[in-house]
């Protein structure tokens, strides 16, 4: 692997992803309940920001297991089961799910008003013209050439 970390992946495998995982010697685990017992941190990157609708199997039980775990959770861009505008679901899978950390990609999403943990912004790839057009002033948030910065309320 490229780093000194111990990763395990649990998700329905895709052909190319499976090849990448194999080439990096990262094991694929189909039993996420067992995986939760042998890890010390969860990286939640199940869905992207374009997710909408109800969470269905097998992801409903995965999200519930993550929510009910005592492990720290870091969500990427949008916590799984959350709506980009309205935040956490009011019922169903993911109700009450609040990750410890959120890493927003490119720009914070409207759901941030519902989030209570540590918030980071990752990726300095928003063109200056768009940043200025939307009055974001995100360049001022980063130190030097850092690609990630912690945002405070």
Automatic annotation (TrEMBL):
<keyword id="KW-0413">Isomerase</keyword>
<dbReference type="GO" id="GO:0005739">
    <property type="term" value="C:mitochondrion"/>
</dbReference>
<dbReference type="Pfam" id="PF03853">
    <property type="entry name" value="YjeF_N"/>
</dbReference>
<keyword id="KW-0520">NAD</keyword>
<dbReference type="InterPro" id="IPR036652">
    <property type="entry name" value="YjeF_N_dom_sf"/>
</dbReference>
<dbReference type="GO" id="GO:0046872">
    <property type="term" value="F:metal ion binding"/>
</dbReference>
<dbReference type="InterPro" id="IPR004443">
    <property type="entry name" value="YjeF_N_dom"/>
</dbReference>
<keyword id="KW-0547">Nucleotide-binding</keyword>
<protein>
    <recommendedName>
        <fullName>NAD(P)H-hydrate epimerase</fullName>
        <ecNumber>5.1.99.6</ecNumber>
    </recommendedName>
</protein>
<dbReference type="GO" id="GO:0052856">
    <property type="term" value="F:NAD(P)HX epimerase activity"/>
</dbReference>
<dbReference type="GO" id="GO:0000166">
    <property type="term" value="F:nucleotide binding"/>
</dbReference>
<feature type="domain" description="YjeF N-terminal">
    <location>
        <begin position="1"/>
        <end position="138"/>
    </location>
</feature>
<keyword id="KW-0479">Metal-binding</keyword>
<dbReference type="InterPro" id="IPR032976">
    <property type="entry name" value="YJEFN_prot_NAXE-like"/>
</dbReference>
<keyword id="KW-0630">Potassium</keyword>
<keyword id="KW-0521">NADP</keyword>
């Amino acid at each position: 692997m490229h780093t000194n970390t111990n990763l395990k992946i649990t998700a329905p495998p895709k052909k190319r992803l499976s090849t990448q995982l194999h080439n990096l010697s990262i094991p694929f685990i189909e039993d996420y309940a067992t995986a939760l017992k042998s890890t010390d941190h969860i990286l939640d990157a199940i869905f992207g920001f374009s997710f909408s609708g109800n969470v269905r199997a097998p992801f409903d039980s995965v999200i519930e297991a993550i929510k009910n775990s005592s492990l720290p959770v870091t969500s990427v861009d949008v916590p799984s089961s959350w709506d980009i505008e309205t935040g956490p679901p009011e019922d169903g899978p993911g109700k009450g799910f609040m990750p410890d950390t959120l890493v927003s990609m490119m720009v914070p999403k409207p759901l941030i008003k519902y989030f209570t943990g540590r918030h980071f912004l990752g990726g300095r790839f928003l063109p200056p013209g768009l940043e200025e057009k939307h009055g974001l002033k995100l360049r001022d948030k980063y130190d030097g050439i850092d690609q990630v910065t912690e945002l405070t309320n």
